[in-house]
Design brief:
By secondary structure, the protein is of the alpha+beta class. The chain has 6 helices and 7 strands, in the order H-E-H-H-E-E-H-E-H-E-E-H-E.
Length: about 160
């Protein structure tokens, strides 16, 4: 339980809580593409030695393409841009026949999407995805039995 002055559960000082609040207020939300594999697994899958993999990862990290930690590797925005995977976001509004909602929800959950929001109002779902995969995603969503309509909005700029 956290009190106003000291967080008893985690033994944080007032200054540490103040720092966390400041970091939260001044921070920005970023999206991270994370791989949760060991270096042994990756080197085996790539058919190279662990030492060779470690050297490659070191260069990628120093160049700002990845962040690493114990048991994970994050691709940075710089890496996603290089790979052509960070070209913008799209929101797809989906209308579904009421009797087929569960079937469509289950099918859409299996697709590679950023987020899926079930919402109230004139539409049933808001699908958030990468613009680079828009054609593929629209084809898959529109082909689902029960999808009545899709309306696509491409993000031009985040303010």
């Amino acid at each position: 339980m956290c009190l106003e002055v000291v967080c008893v559960e985690h033994s944080l000082t007032t200054r540490q809580i103040e720092l966390l609040k400041k970091l939260y207020r001044e921070g920005k939300t970023i999206e991270v593409h994370t791989v949760e594999k060991t270096q042994d697994e990756l080197s085996s899958e790539l058919g190279i030695t662990r030492q060779a993999l470690s050297n490659h990862l070191k260069v990628l990290k120093e160049s700002g393409y990845i962040r690493t930690g114990r048991g994970f590797i994050d691709l940075t925005d710089k890496a996603l841009e290089l790979l052509g995977e960070k070209k913008g976001d799209v929101f797809i509004f989906v209308r579904i026949e009421p009797t087929k909602r569960k079937h469509v929800y289950d099918a859409i959950k299996k697709l590679k999407l950023k987020r899926i929001h079930r919402v109230t109002g004139d539409i049933d779902l808001i699908v958030e995805a990468d613009k680079t995969k828009l054609d593929e995603i629209l084809e898959e969503v529109a082909s689902l039995d029960g999808v009545k309509e899709t309306i696509t909005h491409v993000v031009l700029e985040t303010l």
